């Protein structure tokens, strides 16, 4: 049934996640083992969780595909490449097959959206998820799959997109075992606490590139068993967050969660510029400063005024009147 009410739980979740996206990028400027550990902990789940949210609200529609995915990708790919050459004095060529830095997400969203008919046409949700998981694990054996066309990330994170889409579309039955809520929370929390502890104890051996899902096993120097473990940890985070995040709006997070796209697309210009200054931040104080700057960026960029001002850059105008959709769709926004 169509409703105008927003799902506050997903607004809360997206608000928290977009803050972590900005914080993660700023932590790259902070030295020390504590910042490195926090950075890897964030990267162990925040993008898989965003992909899950995107799958939850995704639907295949040609007009929507052009206006909300292809158009902003082409525009911001051009802007970021020009910014790289003119401001950062880089040498990035003007091309559109390898997304610039954070724009991989828009490119992957286009590919995931094109795969929706295959996901919906699967015989069962479990069969679709198993096929996506097999693709995620098998893709690491091909050293040619990497940043080009965001193919590695698209395949590795595909299970989370499919899981979100199938769960939201009525396929949640059978996706997860029916366990007591408190027991499930305890098990998931224990798994996450154990993985976080191992990240810290083995911090000298843990590589950040493992969490990017952007390279093959050979290129990132790890193996399919480790990739499977990282995917399982990300899945545990997602389920735990869905269980513990309240269904009523949280201050700041719920409001921010309604405007994640401008934060996602625009904060990169600031972070890239900040790298030019090469600030020498003390480890612990640097973490606090990074969190404060992340909050400020989210507050400035993630509001209805910024979204309204820059809306023409996020979504192309309709060229024709929309055709009425006889099938009522879910409400919500894809999280980027």
TrEMBL record:
<feature type="transmembrane region" description="Helical">
    <location>
        <begin position="283"/>
        <end position="302"/>
    </location>
</feature>
<keyword id="KW-0472">Membrane</keyword>
<keyword id="KW-0808">Transferase</keyword>
<feature type="transmembrane region" description="Helical">
    <location>
        <begin position="252"/>
        <end position="271"/>
    </location>
</feature>
<keyword id="KW-1133">Transmembrane helix</keyword>
<feature type="transmembrane region" description="Helical">
    <location>
        <begin position="151"/>
        <end position="171"/>
    </location>
</feature>
<dbReference type="InterPro" id="IPR002656">
    <property type="entry name" value="Acyl_transf_3_dom"/>
</dbReference>
<feature type="transmembrane region" description="Helical">
    <location>
        <begin position="12"/>
        <end position="31"/>
    </location>
</feature>
<feature type="transmembrane region" description="Helical">
    <location>
        <begin position="100"/>
        <end position="120"/>
    </location>
</feature>
<keyword id="KW-0012">Acyltransferase</keyword>
<dbReference type="Pfam" id="PF01757">
    <property type="entry name" value="Acyl_transf_3"/>
</dbReference>
<keyword id="KW-0812">Transmembrane</keyword>
<feature type="transmembrane region" description="Helical">
    <location>
        <begin position="37"/>
        <end position="58"/>
    </location>
</feature>
<feature type="transmembrane region" description="Helical">
    <location>
        <begin position="226"/>
        <end position="245"/>
    </location>
</feature>
<dbReference type="GO" id="GO:0016746">
    <property type="term" value="F:acyltransferase activity"/>
</dbReference>
<protein>
    <submittedName>
        <fullName>Acyltransferase family protein</fullName>
    </submittedName>
</protein>
<feature type="transmembrane region" description="Helical">
    <location>
        <begin position="183"/>
        <end position="201"/>
    </location>
</feature>
<dbReference type="InterPro" id="IPR052734">
    <property type="entry name" value="Nod_factor_acetyltransferase"/>
</dbReference>
<feature type="domain" description="Acyltransferase 3">
    <location>
        <begin position="8"/>
        <end position="301"/>
    </location>
</feature>
């Amino acid at each position: 049934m169509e409703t105008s009410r927003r799902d506050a739980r997903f607004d809360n979740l997206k608000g928290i996640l977009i803050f972590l996206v900005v914080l993660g990028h700023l932590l790259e400027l902070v030295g020390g083992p504590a910042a490195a550990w926090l950075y890897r902990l964030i990267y162990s789940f925040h993008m898989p969780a965003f992909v899950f949210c995107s799958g939850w609200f995704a639907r295949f529609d040609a007009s929507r595909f052009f206006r909300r995915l292809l158009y902003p990708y082409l525009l911001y790919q051009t802007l970021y490449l020009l910014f790289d050459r003119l401001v950062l004095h880089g040498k990035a060529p003007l091309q559109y097959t390898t997304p610039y830095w954070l724009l991989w997400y828009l490119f992957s969203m286009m590919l995931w959206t094109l795969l929706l008919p295959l996901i919906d046409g699967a015989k069962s949700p479990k069969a679709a998820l198993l096929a996506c998981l097999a693709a995620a694990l098998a893709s690491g054996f091909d050293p040619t799959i990497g940043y080009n066309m965001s193919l590695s990330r698209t395949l590795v994170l595909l299970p989370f997109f499919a899981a979100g889409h199938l769960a939201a579309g009525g396929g949640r039955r059978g996706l997860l075992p029916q366990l007591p809520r408190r027991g499930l929370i305890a098990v998931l929390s224990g798994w996450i606490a154990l993985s976080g502890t191992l990240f810290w104890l083995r911090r000298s051996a843990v590589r950040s590139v493992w969490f990017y899902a952007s390279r093959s096993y050979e290129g990132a120097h790890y193996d399919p068993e480790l990739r499977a473990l990282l995917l399982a940890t990300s899945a545990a985070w997602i389920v735990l967050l869905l269980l513990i995040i309240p269904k009523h709006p949280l201050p700041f997070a719920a409001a921010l969660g309604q405007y994640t796209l401008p934060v996602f697309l625009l904060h990169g210009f600031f972070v890239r510029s900040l790298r030019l200054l090469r600030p020498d931040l003390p480890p612990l104080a640097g973490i606090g400063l990074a969190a404060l700057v992340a909050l400020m960026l989210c507050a400035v960029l993630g509001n209805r005024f910024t979204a309204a001002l820059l809306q023409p850059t996020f979504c192309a105008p309709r060229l024709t009147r929309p055709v009425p959709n006889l099938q009522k769709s879910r409400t919500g926004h894809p999280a980027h």
